[in-house]
């Protein structure tokens, strides 16, 4: 047990060290959602009228609406980026070092997930701090209440990235996955527009958005930000985390995953 | 016996990479696994590391069948570089030690010892990116020794190194074997094998020879013998 915890700490610390060494990555990860918040949202403010739906109890500006979605965006991009680093790692061979540690494989993969999630959450709070400087702020307890939601959403998206990385042989294939996973996941969700808006345009698109686990991760964060709780979102996010986690474990099973990855 | 391989087979789809391979690597011995490219050496290491699962046969290390107990007794040096270039030698070693549950002062002591054994102590604080190929390899060997394994497995560790680094590393690892470690050293270069070594010749997934070098070659130069058996079998 002690050995497992020492290993966990080392994997998380290594993720943090790698992150510190890549300062551009930190800046890029912050610039992306800030551009959406300060430019895109400003432009769309007038175009998108929002009605009062839970968890909101009063009219809100569009900038306020998309903050949980942009937190989700940070977690989504980071989850994919850390799996990109896994593909890179495996090509570089250091994934072999991790996987030959005499510990259960699920523990090693989960350590890696926790490490990347911790980094993502730091970025989320840095983003919230900058947003607050621009006057987009929330109740103080809301900042604390979103922490467990961010952890769960981060684990879910990290597990998805991990699962994808086990099926991708080379870095080049990864660009395709970015297009086929990140963009559909982000746009077919409640991150940028409420689902009832989507229903006005297309019932089918609405249903796809409603089934997208990313929608539920974003809603979990949105409700938590207002000290509200959305049990359905929690259930969906939990189930998706378990499903993606199981897929990742299967992908890294020596009986198949690494064989294909060679 | 430290490392025992019995009837080991592995196939990539229809391509048989290893076919009923059986051998042992005893402690205190440098066992050279000589084979041309594509012989199945790297597949064999993938099986040792648990990255692949054998189609048939067994591997055991110090009496433990493949699994966590066996992994804990193995030190592996992979063919591809596996160090984190942005971290220092010590940081890389600390990470590896922690993955095996070793931390704190104990880790520091073992790191110093392992670096000393490979004459790498003065490089401890350098970033791996700043090291030459030979020193990077030595760092990887030091890393494989941190947890005091009973067997050291090296998969063509001299690939891409210049002649001087190659001979220095071969020298170092031969010295480790004389200290009592079981060493399995995969290579396609006959000049890395010494007179007193135990020799295995692997070709197209099958073991063609298993015995002391002098016995296998019957007095002929090893390079000639190696060419004749792998050439004839081709």
Notes on the structure:
- The complex is a heterodimer of chains A (262) and B (234).
- With 262 residues, chain A is mostly helical.
- Chain A has helices at residues 2-21, 23-44, 62-92, 94-99, 105-133, 140-167, 171-187, 195-201, 203-211, 213-225, 231-251, 257-261.
- Residues 257-262 of chain A have low confidence and may be disordered.
- Chain B is of the alpha/beta class and 234 residues long.
- Chain B has eight helices and ten strands.
- In chain B, the strands form two sheets. Chain B has a six-stranded mixed β-sheet, with helices on both faces. Chain B has a four-stranded antiparallel β-sheet with strand order 2-1-4-5.
- The model of chain B has no long low-confidence stretch (mean pLDDT 93).
- The chains are: A mainly alpha (262), B alpha/beta (234).
- At the A-B interface, α1 and α4 of A face α2 and α3 of B.
Q: Give the % helix of chain B.
A: 25-40%
Which shape of chain A, going by the Cα principal axes?
Answer: globular
Q: Rough shape of chain B?
A: globular
What CATH architecture label of the largest domain in chain B applies?
Answer: 3-Layer(aba) Sandwich
CATH fold annotation of the largest domain in chain B: Rossmann fold
How many whole angstroms does the radius of gyration of chain B measure?
17 Å
Task: Return the structural class of chain A.
Answer: mainly alpha
Q: What distance separates the N and C termini of chain B?
A: 32 Å
- Rounded mean pLDDT of chain B is 93
Count of helices of chain B? Answer: 8
- Helix and strand string of chain A, N-terminal first? HHHHHHHHHHHH
Protein name (chain B): YbhF protein
Family (chain B): Belongs to the ABC transporter superfamily.
GO molecular function (chain B): ATP binding; ATP hydrolysis activity
Organism (chain B): Jannaschia aquimarina
